[in-house]
Design a protein that fits this description.
The complex is a heterotrimer of chains A (about 625), B (about 400) and C (about 160). Chain A is α/β, with parallel strands linked by helices. Chain A has three domains: about 90 residues, Roll (Ubiquitin-like (UB roll)); about 120 residues, 2-Layer Sandwich (Alpha-Beta Plaits); about 230 residues, 3-Layer(aba) Sandwich (Fe-only Hydrogenase (Larger Subunit), Chain L, domain 3). In chain A, the strands form five sheets. Chain A has a five-stranded mixed β-sheet with strand order 2-1-5-3-4, sandwiched between helices. In chain A, a hairpin with a 6-residue loop joins strand 7 and strand 8. Chain B is of the alpha/beta class and about 400 residues long. Chain B has three domains: about 200 residues, 3-Layer(aba) Sandwich (Rossmann fold), CATH 3.40.50.11540; about 70 residues, Roll (Ubiquitin-like (UB roll)), CATH 3.10.20; about 90 residues, Up-down Bundle (de novo design (two linked rop proteins)). Chain B has 15 helices and nine strands. In chain B, strand 5 and strand 6 form a beta hairpin. With about 160 residues, chain C is an alpha+beta fold. Chain C is elongated. Chain C starts with a helix and ends with a helix. The chains are: A alpha/beta (about 625), B alpha/beta (about 400), C alpha+beta (about 160). The interface between B and C is large, with 61 and 45 residues.
Chain lengths: ~625, ~400, ~160
């Protein structure tokens, strides 16, 4: 994703200019090298790190991350190369000649040990009081290199105030080791650009514009920096103590909704390989922890599809039949709160393109404190709604002042996958061993369409399954309803579906080729928005954008570490679960139908649904005052 | 309010301080095919004068051989090494040498653009250098079809630094030119392959470029006769500290420190710091060593300390310099130098153990091999050499708990 | 900052961008010019520069904080930079430092109340043979003694 050259980042961090040969069997295509006396052949231009990995030789890394451009700053991966005076960093060194590499000489081991000692000397705090305890790359290295004392001392007073200004991300620069992964994530991977190294020499630190609190700059709360931080310097704003208090308060009726992505990833927090969903086990665990009701966010994902799909059809009708030129097309999805804040900051003049539909999380909050409260005969003031999300931006979203359409704060707390795992462990539960159980009614059943919201392209696929069928009366013409052009991790995907033999109500769409675009990661969102600016999206109808690479399953609240490999496995788990379900189309969800029959009786996009299920956006702009 | 500096140039020398007429070297070079210029340069044995000593002809050849659409020649005038001021003298008094050298480089490697990266501290030179460039343009030594050589277009612009020592490192300099923090790049790739804006770039020290016109004029063989076998030509030394006649001197390579102390009038000399803060400290017993790439290589900074100087104070000054001037990106340099400075302060206060000081020396050795660029690789030199060579003075002479 | 001041500054920066080009490689030159004229680069100026060069404001801030001659905070009209490196130190830099701080009543790193002077240390500025030396703006003064240093102060505007 970040592999292509980006003029914004220094050449020093760009991938190598070395042209890797397409055909490695050609002469000069492979190079014979020696690693630790073992002769191996590698393709021209391979880095030493890659070559070592291929040959099962472990070289430690810190600043290196598979999603990011190279940095070569932590120096932990140094190795000896014969004929070179100094040690070379394995992560940056491209092999272009037959060299001899040694990865574990006395000089190498000593240098690495010194680097760890130096980092520890300035790394404030103790491991047992850190949320990354047992999942910290610095800690792992210290263990690997047998650090048993602080050779060069250990800082005893913090140098920085912890920045808790943001609803989503907490920055504790006292634990920062300046690997700059967050900087590369923010500037290069996400192109948000609110973090950079400031000052020089020993004063160097990662900071925001003029070192302002995170809440005052243009952070979109995506939390991708958290996922890539090797230590505990970045974390999400954790509300679990307040949630415990609510659970322990007998007067409170605490309900939790769980999104599909955390369910597909939470096993990783319990040592399970990525790619296994623990939906049923999680339901039991949450009940045992003391949540009064456990609901499925997919239910409101289905609701979102109905509202957003109807909105799209309404827009198309206004544009095509009423010739209303004020209607903005394409319609952009609005479920990703990181994307919403991104467009509010960077493209405030294009907010009218966004669907006004709330995200599933917020719809759930609004429905819980109205319809559910009414049905269950509970005073909504006593209901505490918790949302288990893969996302740090959801914490900001639920705190938006406009999110109170139920008359109360619609969603009280956004909880990340990591924080949920912590609560489960604290309750003495080993999740993988829990029996499976179902979600609670009245929102118990949800479709597979809601489920695949978790992967990039999922909203689009879910929407198409519904819209196509509403318009033509037939199922989408894809095998097993799997709309494969929506799937996969390509940065920007484009495809189209032709509408033919439409039902009477939608005759105006007869023969229309519905074009759609799916993008994930805000760097790709920027590309899409620039296309829109240039008028290149005039024939596109619907655009799905997710702020995080891979979509929600790669969200900023998901288990650490992350990589494309891990995200792929999570996606597989989600698609497998979708395919295993009977109910796979949002508009067939019986509980959603029931809601429209009993509560939102005027139907989708009506006044009542607008009040509860739709929202408006704020032109924030980029200027930092 | 006028600048009141003088150039303190001490004597004529065999190469740079010998007679040269503006444009002569360019004329000579343009009359030759590019290969011959490279050949002449190669036979001169000229090596980089910034301190690292990479053969200049090799650097030029690599860029000359490239087929890239653009190439650059950058003159590194960011001399920031403590105790160095020779480039200032060259730029003030011999701009013809530096700029002619750049034109010859442009011709040889096929660059159309030359950039002088002038350190911010020398901003006062900017106006006169700009005027000089204007004159060169008037005389067709810059611009289109230089000296009527069909198709040879070349011009020079001057860019200012803004107070960062590390920008003297060639890749940090290029980052700075590109509008980034002056953080050294990963190498490989080297600037000759991926330099300014990603194009092949030759970065040469002011003095290196200034030597080129003389080599063109008088030939590589003439140049090779000066100096030693492995260190050909002459070297400008910036001499400061405890002596009667500090200033800039041109010496043939191979001169010993004793000889040098004699002609600058230094008395009661205890130690000589060769190569500035990042160089090494030579004690009296080694004053018979030679200044040459094969013995003591140097960028030309010579700081003389007499018997009255407190070497621990000197070391502290150096370490404070590095703690401030490290770019801060790589671990060994950013934190390592801080630890070394803390060690110096511990010794000063008397609160230290020998085992800890030895651990710091050990750390210094790791910094020398594991740091990303020359700054971190050479910053422990002073720490190691001063503590080794002045053990008695520092640890025992004044007893523990100095001050 | 008043609106018309902002407009004037924006216009000025636009002219600089026109002069040096919209490429990021012009960043340092633009910053140097703004610094020279305004004695600092305000947060507004930083964001304007970022906008016109299509980079992030924090990147501009990052570059400014890296270079010791560039400042985000207002400096005095005259920036006095006293060399603190070894040769000047041996030549008596401490005496000059004492004289300057006494004369101006501020420490190094500070600006006088009337915004006339800012005192700073700088690392080796290449006047080692003629130390102690200091820079006032872009002028260099060498072979200082305390009296001379203080007299020079009086000459600047």
């Amino acid at each position: 994703m970040a592999k292509e050259n980006n003029p914004r980042i220094p050449v020093s961090q760009q991938p190598f200019q070395v042209q890797k040969p397409e055909d490695t069997t050609a002469i000069g295509g492979t190079i014979s090298i020696e690693v630790n006396e073992k002769k191996v052949s590698v393709p021209f231009g391979t880095t030493i790190l890659e070559a070592c990995k291929e040959n099962q030789i472990h070289v430690p890394t810190l600043c290196h991350h598979p999603d990011l451009c190279v940095a070569g700053v932590c120096r932990i991966c140094v190795v000896e190369v014969d004929g070179m005076r100094t040690l070379q960093t394995a992560c940056t060194f491209p092999i272009t000649s037959p060299i001899k590499i040694h990865t574990s000489t006395p000089m190498v081991r000593k240098a690495r040990r010194h680097i760890i000692d130096l980092l520890l000397s300035e790394h404030y705090g103790e491991c047992y009081s850190c949320f990354r305890n047992e999942n910290c790359e610095l800690q792992t290295l210290a263990k690997e290199y047998g650090v048993d004392s602080y050779t060069f001392g250990h800082i005893t007073t913090p140098k920085f105030d912890v920045d808790r200004s943001s609803a989503s991300v907490v920055r504790d620069m006292n634990k920062c080791i300046l690997c700059k992964r967050c900087v590369r994530t923010c500037i290069d991977l996400q192109e948000v650009g609110c973090l950079e190294a400031l000052d020089r020499g020993h004063e160097t630190h990662v900071g925001t514009f003029l070192d302002k609190p995170l809440a005052e700059v243009i952070c979109i709360n995506c939390g991708q920096c958290i996922n890539r931080c090797p230590t505990g310097a970045l974390r999400a704003n954790d509300p679990s103590d307040q949630i415990w208090n609510a659970i322990d308060d007998p007067k409170k009726h605490v309900v939790i909704q769980t999104a599909p992505s955390p369910r597909a990833a939470i096993g990783e927090e319990f040592g399970i390989e990525p790619g296994h969903s623990f939906t049923g086990e999680l339901n039991s665990a949450l009940k045992r922890i003391g949540f009064d009701k456990v609901f499925d966010t997919n239910y409101t994902a289905d609701l979102t599809i109905i509202e957003e799909g109807t909105e799209l059809l309404n827009r198309l009708k206004k544009a095509l039949v009423d010739k209303d030129e004020s209607v903005k097309i394409p319609q952009f999805t609005s479920c990703s709160p990181g994307w919403i804040k991104f467009i509010e900051h960077f493209y405030p003049e294009y907010l009218d393109y966004l669907s006004t539909a709330k995200s599933p999380q917020q719809m759930f909050g609004a429905i819980t404190k109205t319809f559910y409260a009414q049905e269950a005969k509970i005073n909504p003031a006593d209901i505490v709604t918790v949302a288990l999300m893969p996302c740090s931006a959801k914490k900001f979203e639920c705190n938006r002042p406009e999110m109170d359409s139920s008359g109360f704060k619609d969603v009280d707390y956004g909880l990340t996958t990591r924080e949920m795992a912590k609560m489960i462990k604290e309750a003495g539960i080993f999740l993988p061993e829990m029996p499976k159980s179902h979600f609670d009614d009245p929102f118990g059943d949800a479709s597979g369409a809601g489920l695949i919201f978790g992967a990039t392209g999922g909203v689009m696929e879910a929407a198409l399954r519904t819209v196509y069928e509403l318009v033509t009366g037939r199922e989408v013409p894809f095998k097993n309803l799997n709309i494969t052009p929506c799937r996969g991790f390509e940065g920007i995907k484009q495809a189209s579906v032709k509408l033919e033999n439409c039902v009477d109500a939608y005759k105006f769409l007869e023969g229309v080729e519905v074009k759609f675009i799916v993008a994930h990661g805000t760097a790709n969102a920027t590309k899409v928005m620039e296309m829109l600016k240039k008028g290149e999206l005039n024939d596109v109808h619907f655009v799905e954008i997710m702020a995080c690479p891979g979509g929600c399953l790669g969200g900023g609240g998901q288990p650490i570490p992350t990589s494309e490999e891990i995200r792929t496995k999570r996606a597989q788990a989600i698609y497998a679960e979708d395919e295993s379900l009977e109910l796979r189309k949002s508009h067939e969800n019986p509980h959603v139908k029931l809601l429209y029959e009993k509560f939102l009786t005027e139907g989708p996009c009506s006044e009542k649904s607008h009040h509860l299920l739709h929202t408006h956006y704020t032109k924030r702009g980029k200027f930092i005052s | 309010m006028e600048n009141n500096l003088d150039n303190n140039k001490k004597r004529t020398g065999p190469v740079l301080f010998s007679k040269y007429t503006r444009g002569e070297g360019i004329k000579k070079a343009l009359a030759m095919p590019r290969e011959d210029v490279l050949f002449e340069l190669k036979s001169s044995g000229l090596k980089g004068r910034g301190g690292a000593g990479f053969p200049t002809s090799t650097k030029w050849m690599l860029v000359a051989a490239s087929t890239a659409s653009k190439k650059f020649i950058v003159c590194n005038a960011d001399e920031g090494e403590p105790g160095t001021f020779k480039d200032r003298v060259l730029l003030m008094e011999y701009p013809e040498l530096v700029f002619d050298g750049m034109v010859i480089a442009g011709y040889t490697i096929g660059a159309k653009t030359g950039i002088v990266y002038l350190r911010g501290e020398y901003e006062y030179l900017l106006l006169q250098l700009e005027e000089y460039l204007m004159k060169m343009r008037d005389d067709n030594l810059l611009g289109k079809n230089i000296l009527s050589k069909e198709g040879f277009d070349f011009d020079i612009s001057i860019r200012l630094g803004s107070g960062a020592y590390v920008c003297g490192e060639e890749t940090a300099l290029i980052e700075s030119l590109e509008g980034h923090r002056g953080e050294p790049r990963n190498r490989p790739p080297y600037p000759v392959n991926t330099g300014y804006l990603g194009f092949p770039t030759v970065v040469n020290n002011v003095e290196t470029l200034a030597s080129v016109p003389h080599i063109m004029q008088k030939g590589g063989d003439w140049f090779r006769l000066i100096g030693t076998d492995k260190s050909t030509g002459s070297k400008l030394l910036s001499i400061s500290g405890d002596c009667e006649k500090p200033g800039v001197y041109e010496i043939p390579w191979g001169t010993t420190i004793t000889e040098l102390l004699q002609f600058v009038g230094a008395q009661n000399t205890k130690a000589v710091q060769v190569g500035g803060a990042s160089g090494i400290c030579i004690p009296k017993r080694n004053f018979d060593r030679h200044l040459a790439y094969e013995d003591i290589a140097t960028g030309g900074s010579i700081i003389i300390f007499n018997e009255s100087r407190d070497m621990l104070h000197v070391l502290q000054n150096f370490m404070e310099f590095f703690v401030e001037e490290s770019c801060g990106q790589c671990t060994p340099c950013r934190i390592g130098n801080t630890k070394l400075l803390e060690g110096v302060k511990m010794i000063r206060s008397g609160e230290f153990t020998f085992s800890y000081i030895n651990a710091l020396k050990d750390l210094g050795k790791s910094m020398q091999v594991a740091s990303k660029c020359g700054l971190g690789q050479s910053s422990p030199n002073a720490f190691i050499s001063i503590l080794e060579n002045f053990k008695d003075e520092i640890f025992f002479h004044n007893g523990y708990g100095r001050k | 900052m008043l609106v018309y001041e902002k407009n004037a500054l924006s216009e000025e920066i636009e002219l600089l961008v026109e002069k040096y080009g919209v490429d990021r490689s012009s960043l340092l030159q633009i910053l140097q010019d703004v610094q020279r004229k305004h004695n600092h680069i305000s947060d507004f100026a930083q964001q304007e520069i970022a906008r016109l060069l299509s980079i992030h404001p924090v990147e501009v801030n990052s570059v400014i904080s890296f270079y010791s001659f560039l400042h985000s905070q207002p400096q005095g009209r005259n920036s006095i930079k006293l060399c603190q490196t070894i040769s000047c130190d041996m030549a008596g830099k401490q005496k000059i430092e004492d004289a300057l701080t006494r004369e101006l009543g501020i420490s190094f790193g500070e600006t006088t109340k009337d915004k006339k002077y800012t005192l700073e240390h700088t690392n080796c500025m290449g006047m080692c043979d003629q130390g102690p030396a200091m820079l006032i703006n872009d002028k260099v003064f060498t072979r200082l003694d305390p009296e001379k240093a203080v007299n020079i102060l009086k000459e600047v505007e």
